[in-house]
From TrEMBL:
Residues 558-586 are annotated as: Disordered. Specifically deaminates adenosine-37 to inosine in tRNA-Ala. Belongs to the ADAT1 family. Its EC number is 3.5.4.34. Pfam families: A_deamin. Its cofactor is 1D-myo-inositol hexakisphosphate. This is tRNA-specific adenosine deaminase 1.
Length: 605
């Protein structure tokens, strides 16, 4: 199962992510991390005929993207994928962007007024009802700075971008469902039924929940029954999951009482893989870590979090103590790796990918904004990682797997068990972890292993006697590859299989620069250029999409509250003697307290 998930993710990378527009690492010169979220649909063999799922036909793009097993029990496809290995601090990026004026509107409506908003070139311009002269909303300096902060991707690691691609896909589905209800709200039950039929013919992930009537909250969605989400990563996540034993070199000859690792007929030295992520030192444990008798922390670094306004004045500043490890510790929180000689205000404050995966395993992948519409956490069912060719365990990869189980499953198990006992919820289990023997050719571990083997070959050639003393032996030195500065993100449009023309515009890949967190292109010279340079996966983009869904709710609240209440009551009274099955279990749209909910008809009265 895990091997098929990895194969599906890598096939999608080679088939869908084109090399024409760049963004992919140059083989032999650059490395990167590739991550993908794969959806698996579990169903019986006869479900195709029941739900009307289209059968495999020649030229059907859906069948090309979906991987089915011979028995037809599992169908899998890539929902989102990304590459990247960079992160950045917000201060140097914001300081390099054009400084906006006080009256610049970053596209966020604050409060309610008697004006209407026009959308033009990604910005919102407010016009008075009585005149045609536009004026911008007067935002305070702190709001402008926060607006710029939300436009920058601070963490461009592949795991984070793949998760944000899933969030973008979920926003697409929610917005489409709400628009469908608003467009065809004359027959609410038929709207939901039609949307359900369309969802069977697409790669839709969400379905509306049957919930009881409430005065608060929007429509609720959940992951469709039978669908599970899995993540593939080309390398072990940075942080705690990357601490395991690896080979350092295989050029020594066996000696008496040699305790080095034996690989074939070669003797190899071993070492613990260095993650590079910095330990976060809290006040309670800082003294223990810095004790010279422990020797775990060789030096203490500081990381400054500075909140500035548009003029550069410091509003608030806080400092986090980070530890540079001499001996790597297990089970501790870390930030992303960075140079130790970097200035404190330039250091990234993003958590390591191992810690983020643990957090997503508890709170879900959807984030705080999507939790308004998806109250139940969406968790990963499994995480599979490609093998590290430097691992000392040979074909078993037990050390790498043990690190994954310790850093992910082990830390999650205790938290989820406590949550189950405290909240009385269903039995929660951590995701399964596995190491697969399929590799990504441009991964960091493969590149480092290729460099190590090349250096061993060069050393062997240099020690051999030259056949002709007058001529220098030609030795092809192995060059150490560097990290690719570009990041690619892709996510599905779940309606692309219904309309092929829509696929080209909505499923296009986006290329961002990891060091800046902005889209690749010309340097932004005006505030409008910054809006165009912002990635579709940034916080600002998600906020705008959340506000679009809120506007749909408000429009439905003002126009449909009284109509839906009166019409549904009349329908129930007029045909109360012999209600049909559709009326008993059908879903309707009902407005309560200005919020939209989907409820069963029999729950309304």
């Amino acid at each position: 199962m895990h091997r098929r998930i990895a194969q599906c993710a890598l096939d999608h990378y080679h088939r869908t992510l084109s090399s024409k527009n760049g963004g992919k690492p140059q083989t032999g010169r650059e490395w990167t991390v590739y991550a993908a979220i794969v959806a698996c649909r579990h169903r019986r063999r006869d479900d195709d005929e029941k739900v009307g799922t289209p059968k495999s036909e020649e030229g059907d793009d859906r069948c090309d993207r979906c991987l089915k097993d011979p028995g037809g029990d599992i169908e899998m496809w890539v929902v989102s994928c990304a590459t990247g290995s960079k992160c950045t601090s917000i201060r140097p990026i914001v300081s390099s962007l054009p400084r906006p004026s006080k009256n610049y509107d970053c596209g966020i409506r604050i409060g309610q007024d008697n004006s209407r908003t026009h959308h033009n070139s990604g910005t919102n311009v407010t016009r008075d009802r009585g005149g045609e002269t536009p004026h911008f909303l007067d935002l305070d300096e702190g709001s402008i700075c926060k607006c710029y902060n939300g436009m920058v991707l601070k963490d461009s690691h592949a795991e984070t971008l793949a998760r944000r691609g899933l969030m973008s896909c979920l926003w697409d589905e929610i917005e489409h469902s709400l628009q469908l209800i608003r467009t065809k709200s004359t027959n609410d039950a038929a709207v939901v039924e039609e949307d359900a039929k369309e969802g069977c013919q697409t790669l839709q992930l969400l379905e509306a929940c049957n919930i009881s009537l409430d005065d608060h909250g929007p429509v609720s969605f959940r992951l469709k029954l039978g669908i599970s989400l899995h993540m593939y990563i080309s390398d072990s996540p940075c942080g705690d999951a990357s601490i395991y034993e690896i080979r350092r070199g295989c050029d020594r000859q066996p000696q008496n009482n040699d305790t080095s690792n034996v690989v074939g007929d070669k003797i190899c030295d071993t070492e613990i893989n260095f993650t590079g992520a910095k330990i976060i030192l809290s006040a309670g444990v800082q003294g223990w870590h810095t004790d010279r008798r422990n020797g775990s922390i060789s030096s203490i670094l500081t990381c400054s979090i500075v909140d500035q306004n548009a003029t550069g004045d410091v509003i608030k500043q806080s400092t986090i103590a980070l530890g540079r490890e001499g001996t790597q510790q297990l089970g501790v929180l870390r930030t992303k790796s960075s140079r130790s000689n970097m200035a404190p205000d330039l250091r990234s404050t993003s958590m390591s990918c191992s810690d983020k995966l643990v957090r997503w395993g508890v709170f879900g992948l959807q984030g705080s904004l999507l939790a308004m519409y998806i109250p139940n956490p969406i968790r990963l069912s499994s995480i599979c990682v490609s093998k590290d060719p430097r691992s000392v365990d040979g074909g078993s990869y037990g050390g790498q797997l043990a690190a994954l189980e310790r850093a992910l499953s082990g830390r999650l198990e205790n938290v989820l068990k406590t949550k189950t006992q405290t909240c009385g919820s269903e039995d929660l289990r951590p995701p399964d972890v596995a190491v697969v023997d399929i590799i990504y050719e441009n991964s960091k571990t493969v590149s480092d292993n290729r460099y190590s083997e090349g250096q061993t070959f060069v050393k062997k050639r240099s020690t051999e006697a030259c056949p002709a003393p007058s001529k220098k032996p030609k030795v092809h030195d192995a060059k150490k590859v560097s990290a690719c500065g570009m990041s690619i993100n892709w996510h599905q449009n779940y309606r692309a299989n219904v309309n092929p023309d829509e696929r080209d515009s909505n499923e296009a890949t986006e290329i961002t620069i990891g060091a800046t967190g902005l889209k690749r292109g010309k340097k932004a010279k005006t505030p409008k250029d910054v809006l165009r340079s912002a990635s579709r996966l940034c916080r600002f983009s998600f906020l705008r999409r959340c506000m679009r869904c809120t506007e749909i709710h408000e429009s439905l609240s003002s126009s449909r509250h009284a109509d839906v209440d009166v019409s549904t009551k009349k329908e129930s009274i007029g045909d109360s003697s012999s209600p049909s099955t559709e009326e008993e279990v059908g879903q309707v749209v009902y407005m309560a307290g200005g919020r939209l909910r989907l409820v069963r008809r029999d729950d309304m009265y």
